[in-house]
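Marked as duplicate of an earlier ticket. Keeping the data here for the record.
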Amino acid sequence: MFLLPQPTSRIEKDRFIDIVKERLLKVYDEKIMAIGVYGSFALDEDGPYSDINFQVIVFDGQRIDDFQFIYPPFKVTIEALQKQQYITSAKEINADWSLNVARFIHTMPIYDPIMFFSKMKSIPLQISSYEIKDVMKECMIEELYVKMAKIRNLRLIQEETSLLLNAVEFCEQSAKLIGLANRYYFRSKTRMLEESLGIATKPHGYEQLVKLILQRDWDNSENIYKACEHLWTGINQWFNELGINYRSHSFPF
């Protein structure tokens, strides 16, 4: 068995984070406004094999390269953004919003003399209902509609394994929309489905499919298929209730 990756303790990670911080400040000095850590370590949910993600904020007009490397036994990502670039990213809204914003809200400052990261925490949540509905419509056309069509095709040709895999993806795509519609963000994708069951507003049929997936009830693909159909009906009813119309009755050109 190849030795890497190897487990490290939180104390070892903490020491390494301090080494990287001091190295960044020594090399780039006056370019840096703030340094933070995001991801599982910042959420206090890291495991022995978790990597470390650094967010470096540089002053507008300055530039530092991004880095991704293995410094045994650590896997390290360093993303550097100018102040305004970071603010723009924090305001971005797309189908993955409910998974992406935790990194902005839960960044752990390790060098932040002006409390930049603390000031940024509220920005990702400042999204309007119009923006949310536009993204939901786009996601329905580009992802959910296509995924449901694929699930129906797979059932017709009795490709059970592919059907099950696509059902999981269909459920995950639905979870992200539920999070977005409720302005609820998930701490990680690993726990997204379980977390989503506690969200107040969601389409009929969603809980049924999630529970089948979480229980690993794969013995009968027909049950999974029927749960997908039930959820698909629920999603369309949900969209009608929200006033989101994704179907066109004339050509857009």
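See parent ticket for discussion. The longest strand covers residues 74-82.
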